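Why should sequence recovery work at all? Because a backbone constrains its sequence more than one might expect. Tight turns favour small or flexible residues, buried strands favour hydrophobic ones, and helices have their own preferences. The token representation captures these environments compactly. In the example below, the structure is given first.
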């Protein structure tokens, strides 16, 4: 018999899948719940399958359903064939536990916040392998094989799956020795970063500070360089609480005015729904826990 003739004799495979669930549970209600279908949809599929085979697969009595001899024979065949298919799929499908979860993270977040915390994630979820690389701005998900990106929401994220992590909190930071010398950030050289060029202006306007340029202003390409310069006593920088918290705790930096929300937020971004990959959910929940702990500073 030709391959096409064999396929023509087969009933719809979706009907067989539904039949197997009903046979296993001996309940259409339980099968419907497992398959996320309505009871009516399951009942229609079973009736269509019985019409296709021209045989009764279940007998219905005392408000219950029971397999006929023919139904039990088909059930055994379905279990065997589905198990074989599952084995083949497992052999050819890339193992999600082996393939690393690829994380794209802005350089400052990676160096000043994320990397120091990753051992905690690995200890909790040793089965999840991570591959981290740094990049900022728009994410090339397909080209770079990125699963999850960690970004601030300061660019267009439309068309992507975005999960909120934490609101950004900012404030001036400086070396303690510099504060003792000037006692006012307005008198200190201001340190700027190309990635947040209006940070000082926004903070000064919001706090009634002097907005004219200060003596000895310096500008740096990356945010983390600005924080390093502040720690070295070169001036005062507008910093993220999350990025500066360890230096503040260690006494290398001080935040004389604390930190306030600036309207932006950190988020986890993906090209595909997070719930399609359990590893993404684990990583997302862990990120939220860590940001919440940081926010208690």
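From this structural description, the recovered sequence reads:
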């Amino acid at each position: 018999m030709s391959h096409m003739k064999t396929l023509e004799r087969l009933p719809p495979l979706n009907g067989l899948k539904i039949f197997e669930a009903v046979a296993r549970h001996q309940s259409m209600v339980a099968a419907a719940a497992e398959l996320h279908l309505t009871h009516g949809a399951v009942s229609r599929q079973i009736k269509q399958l019985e019409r296709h085979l021209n045989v009764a697969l279940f007998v219905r009595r005392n408000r219950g359903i029971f397999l006929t001899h023919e139904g039990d024979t088909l059930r055994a065949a379905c279990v065997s064939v589905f198990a074989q298919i599952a084995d083949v799929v497992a052999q050819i499908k890339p193992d999600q536990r082996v393939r690393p979860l690829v994380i794209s993270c802005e350089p400052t977040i990676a160096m000043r916040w994320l990397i120091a915390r990753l051992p905690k994630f690995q200890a909790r979820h040793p089965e999840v392998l991570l591959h981290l690389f740094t990049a900022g701005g728009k994410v090339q998900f397909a080209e770079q094989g990125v699963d999850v990106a960690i970004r601030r929401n300061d660019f267009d994220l439309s068309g992507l799956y975005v999960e909120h992590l934490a609101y950004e909190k900012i404030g001036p930071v400086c070396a303690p020795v510099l504060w003792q010398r000037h006692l006012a950030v307005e008198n200190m050289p201001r340190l700027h970063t190309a990635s947040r060029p209006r940070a000082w202006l926004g903070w000064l306007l919001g706090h009634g500070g002097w907005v004219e340029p200060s003596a000895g202003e310096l500008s740096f390409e990356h945010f983390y360089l600005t924080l390093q310069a502040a720690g070295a006593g070169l001036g005062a920088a507008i910093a993220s609480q999350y990025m500066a918290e360890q230096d503040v705790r260690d006494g290398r930096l001080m935040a004389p005015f604390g930190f306030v929300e600036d309207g932006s937020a950190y988020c986890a971004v993906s090209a595909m729904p997070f719930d399609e990959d359990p590893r993404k959910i684990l990583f997302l929940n862990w990120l939220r826990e860590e940001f919440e702990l940081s926010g208690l500073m």
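A few observations help interpret the result. The chain has a mean pLDDT of 87.
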